[in-house]
C-alpha cells in the first residue's frame, strides 16, 4: 500500500515568516562550529550530486554549498525566509558568481515541489531543523523515501533533553504568547534511534558546538 503524504504547511510557518528579517540580521553564534559543519558536509558531496536542503532559512548555507554539486534545491516552509534567500541571488550587477544549479522554493518535505523524479536525491541536508518539526518520524520516513539507495541524510540537530527542565517551561510560556515555535527536546540517543528506525545507517557523528548540537551523517539502507 502506497504511503500518503500530506501537503499541508506546518503550523509554525507563519511564525518563521514573521521572524525572517530578524533571523537574517542575526550573526552566526558559533562561526567555528558552523565552518566545521560545512567542512564535514562538503566531504560527503560530489560534483554530480543532486541535493535537497530542508529548512534552508535565508539561504546562506545553500549559497556556500551549492557550488560543490550538480543541482541544489534549497527549501523552507516559511515564505518570508525564501523571499530573502531569493533576493540574495539578485544582489550585485550580475549573478555570475552564484551557483548555477541553485534554486530556492517555498516547500516542506511533503510538498510535491521536492519530488526528485525516478532516481532520488544523492543527499538531503537539514541543519537546525528536525527539532522544530512536529512530525519528526514522518519527516524522516519521507526523507528516506526521497533519497536514492545509498543516499545520505546529513543533518545537525539541537538536542536539549538534558536541559529540558530549564527550557521546556520557558518555551511553553513563550508559545502561549506567540513568541516561540514548536520545539522537540531530543537527546543524542533518541535522535540517533529515530534516524536508524527510519531505515538509515549512521556513518558519522559529531557535536558542533558541544554539548548540544549533534551532527549526523546517515546512509539510506
The average pLDDT is 87
Q: What percent of residues are in strands?
A: 15-25%
| Biggest sheet record | 7 strands, mixed
Poorly predicted tracts of residues: none
Tally of contiguous helical segments: 8
Structural class determined from secondary elements: alpha/beta
- Highest CATH level, the class: Alpha Beta
Q: Helix share of residues?
A: 25-40%
Q: Numbering strands along the chain, what is their spatial order in the largest sheet? A: 3-2-1-4-5-7-6
Total of domains: 1
Instruction: Name the CATH homologous superfamily.
Output: Vaccinia Virus protein VP39
| Topology as a string of helices (H) and strands (E) | HHHEHEHEEHEHHEE
Radius of gyration: 17 Å
Distance between the termini: 20 Å
Number of DSSP strands? 7
CATH architecture: 3-Layer(aba) Sandwich
How would you sum up the global shape? globular
